[in-house]
Specification:
Length: 131
C-alpha cells in the first residue's frame, strides 16, 4: 500500500476591493505561499510583485465547475493552490459553488473572507455606513 501525501487545502480567498492591505493576515499568508493561483481579473493587482503561476481559465459564475476541476487537479498534484474572488463571493454564491465541487472531489478547502466591497471601501475611506 502506498503512502500518499496529504492533499493541501485550497484557499478560497475573498479579494474584496482588490487592496492587499485589506486582506486578512491568514489570506495574505496563503497567497504568499501559493504555488498556483486562479484569480478574477478585477483583483489581479493582489499578485503584484509575486512570482507565481497564474492559471488562465475563465472565472465567470457559469465556469464554477471548470474552475473547481482546475483547483482539484492542482491540489492533488501537491501544489498550494489559491483561488481569489473579486468582491464578496459569499453574497453572490460563487465561492459556495466552487466549495461544493471541491467537497465532492474530497479536496480540502478553506474559505478566507476579507473586507467586503461596500463596507471595506467605506471603512478604508473613513465613511460610516449608518450615518
Amino acid at each position: 500500500m502506498k503512502n500518499r501525501k496529504p492533499v493541501p487545502a485550497v484557499a478560497l480567498i475573498a479579494g474584496g476591493a482588490g487592496d492587499r492591505e485589506l486582506l486578512s493576515v491568514r489570506a495574505a499568508a496563503m497567497l504568499d505561499s501559493a504555488d498556483v493561483v486562479v484569480c478574477d481579473p478585477e483583483v489581479v493587482s493582489l499578485l503584484a510583485g509575486r512570482e507565481v503561476e497564474v492559471l488562465d481559465i475563465p472565472t465567470a459564475p457559469t465556469d464554477a465547475a471548470a474552475v473547481a476541476k482546475a483547483l482539484t487537479e492542482q491540489a492533488r498534484a501537491g501544489r498550494h493552490t489559491v483561488r481569489i474572488f473579486a468582491g464578496d463571493p459569499i453574497i453572490d454564491g460563487r465561492v459556495l459553488a466552487e466549495a461544493k465541487a471541491l467537497h465532492r472531489s474530497k479536496v480540502p478547502f478553506e474559505i478566507l473572507p476579507s473586507a467586503a466591497g461596500v463596507s471595506g471601501v467605506a471603512a478604508y475611506a473613513g465613511i460610516g455606513l449608518t450615518g
